[in-house]
Write a structure and sequence with these properties.
Elements (H helix, E strand, L loop, with lengths): L1 H11 L2 H12 L2 H7 L4 H21 L4 H17 L6 H11 L5 H25 L6 H5 L9 H29 L3 H31 L6 H5 L6 H10 L8 H48 L7 E5 L2 E6 L17 E4 L7 E4 L7 E3 L8
Antiparallel strand pairs: 1-2, 2-3, 3-4, 4-5
Helix pairs in contact: 1-2, 1-4, 1-12, 2-12, 2-13, 3-13, 4-5, 4-6, 5-7, 6-10, 9-10, 9-12, 9-13, 10-12
Length: 364
């Protein structure tokens, strides 16, 4: 929220426009939803806002080459939070080129910073997992889809419920600004930053539209996509000449954003978070109880839970003869489903799972 406010105020020179951007960002019910689950979505949101702020700063005036290196590093770190954030690499370079702030040296600096940030992960993932691409990312991408009504509906619902009122405000701001020479001049002045800011959600939507059949939690995946919209809205409001800015109506519209968000929160978000919290708390409590009953002093175990499946990963003491030949001597993982009595014994880099009888001194 702080990055959104200060970036908007720097870009517009108006505290009022920055406050409008802050209110729209804070009224995003999907941010409430996924911040409440303590998952990567809110960190992805922060990464996008910071990358956008750094890019806008570089678009405003020629800076030191090290700031371009920093921008590349930020994009690289964001890519490790959510692989799709890597779309910012070509997007930011294009914006800087069109703003005449980046030549070959600056572009090389951005690539250099990006490579420095992502190479440690690529090296580790390739050596350990056999691929630099996260398995979850690969699992959610399929062939090319030219008609994808499922993604259009799911992501469209996310955008409307989170930002429907603010989009109406943006449309009114454009109409008011277009009525005067001063407003049209400001729209031209802000055109490139606005195109960059809305280009990100459009590019992310296009990726999901073209490459995914469906998203199990569309709000989670598209939350970072709308992180730049409040800043774009602040710029659109700033384009309206001050004499045409009707602050009481703007305040009322922003209050409407908050009211809609509170209603959706009460009817949809809070019940989901309550169930989520209770379900995961119960799962972890049961897992802790199981470990107390089956672990001996000195045993090491990692408990992991997701969608009702419990897994325990540890360095086991199985005889070497019981281990799959593709397993390394450093350790293995055993997984089980609550509905199965079998132990699925899996090594980190094995390509298949071998069902083994449960050893007497092992954890499932």
């Amino acid at each position: 929220m702080a990055v959104t406010f200060f970036t908007s105020r720097t870009a517009t020179g108006s505290t009022t426009c920055a406050l409008a951007a802050l209110v729209v960002a804070a009224a995003n019910v999907h941010l409430w939803r996924w911040s409440g689950t303590v998952m990567e979505a809110s960190l992805g949101y922060l990464s996008v806002v910071v990358i956008a702020a750094a890019t806008l700063r570089l678009m405003a005036a020629r800076r030191s080459v090290w700031e371009f290196v920093l921008l590349g590093g930020l994009i690289g770190l964001g890519t490790q939070v959510r692989f799709e954030i890597g779309i910012f690499l070509p997007l930011a370079i294009a914006a800087l080129m069109f703003s005449r702030q980046a030549g070959l040296r600056q572009i090389a600096a951005i690539f250099g910073g990006f490579v420095v940030a992502v190479m440690p992960w690529i090296a580790f993932a390739t050596a350990y997992f056999g691929s630099p691409i996260p398995t979850t990312f690969a699992a959610k991408t399929t062939g090319l889809h030219l008609v994808n009504s499922v993604i259009t509906k799911s992501l469209g619902t996310i955008v409307v419920t989170g930002f429907g009122v603010s989009m109406l405000i943006a449309a009114i701001a454009i109409a008011l600004a277009a009525r005067s020479d001063e407003g049209r001049e400001r729209l031209r002045e802000y055109a490139l930053p606005i195109l960059f800011l809305i280009g990100w959600p459009i590019a992310l939507f296009a990726f999901y539209y073209l490459k995914t059949d469906e998203l199990q939690s569309p709000g989670r995946y598209f939350l970072p996509g709308m992180a730049t919209w409040p800043i774009a809205l602040g710029l659109l409001i700033a384009a309206v000449p001050r004499k045409q800015q009707n602050r009481p109506w703007l305040v009322a519209a922003l209050a409407g954003c908050l009211a809609v968000g509170l209603v959706i929160n009460a009817t949809s978000v809070r019940p989901v978070l309550n169930v989520f919290n209770a379900g995961y708390r119960t799962a972890m409590s049961h897992g802790a109880e199981f470990l107390r009953e089956h672990c001996r002093p000195g045993d090491k175990a990692l408990i992991w839970s997701d969608i009702g499946v419990m897994s325990w990963s540890l360095k086991t003491s199985l005889p070497a003869s019981d281990r799959p030949t593709s397993c390394r001597a450093s350790g293995s993982a055993a997984t089980s489903s609550p509905t199965s009595n079998n132990c699925n014994y899996r090594c980190p880099r094995a390509t298949r799972t071998t069902a083994l009888p449960e050893p007497a001194n092992s954890i499932i």
